[in-house]
Amino acid sequence: MTHLIAVCSGKGGVGKTFISAHLGIAIHKLGKKVLIVDADMGLANAQLMLGVSPKSTISDYVLGGKPITEVITQIDEGLELLAGASGDANIVNMPLASLSDLCHVIETIYTDTVVIFDIAAGISAQNMHLLALCDTRIVIFVDEPTSIADSYGVLKLLHKSDHLSETYLIPNQVSNLSSGQSFYEKMNSLCLSFLGRPVGYLGSIEEDKAVRSAIRSRKPLPYSFPNSTAWCNIQTLAHKVMEYDSREKTPTVSN
Length: 255
Fold this sequence. Notes:
This protein is α/β, with parallel strands linked by helices. Helices cover 46% and strands 18% of the residues. The protein has one domain: P-loop containing nucleotide triphosphate hydrolases (Rossmann fold), CATH 3.40.50.300. The protein has 11 helices and 9 strands. Strands 1, 2, 3, 4, 5, 6, 7, 8 and 9 form a 9-stranded mixed sheet that branches. Keywords: ATP-binding, Nucleotide-binding. It holds the Pfam family CbiA. This is MinD/ParA family protein.
């Protein structure tokens, strides 16, 4: 069964793409087939995090008419990337029907695969449509007022569209796991107070200098800093995602 996961954030610059790419690698290392889709249609950079140079992008599929299997970049056996287009204005405002078609094609071809959509920051119609199409939604945020406010905005819209269930938070760049849990509890308290619903907690990622070094070298953490704290955190998250996947898309919301 295909499991569609959307990774999003209310605000840019919180580590969303880095987490999407590394979560994909970590899940693949657990023996699962993984497809990473760079759904930041206008400013794609997942390929930089993964250290690959795609020959084709999603534009070649949507606008060029190529079969999706011909525009996929193989990173490893069972680990693939559908690269986004960078600086292509024609793909930025992709019709919602085209996004639905994309998900349908992926589900048809990539059976028994975890598909991770790295969605652009913000609450555009395209972003919210993709979030609704996915089975699981992950919201990345950091301990900054703008990030917290914008993340709550995403959660509020998900609640309005009845898609807050199977939505999980990941506090990023936290000083320690206890503070990450605390940041989550504050956000969950907001949801309980104003939305009347809890939001799930997947786990936290600690601040780690290895992350910046890995990005600069275009070499993912497991191949550059395999013992780094951030990579250990991400592996823990991957185990939780796989646990949820094994429950046939019905994870228990923790709060």
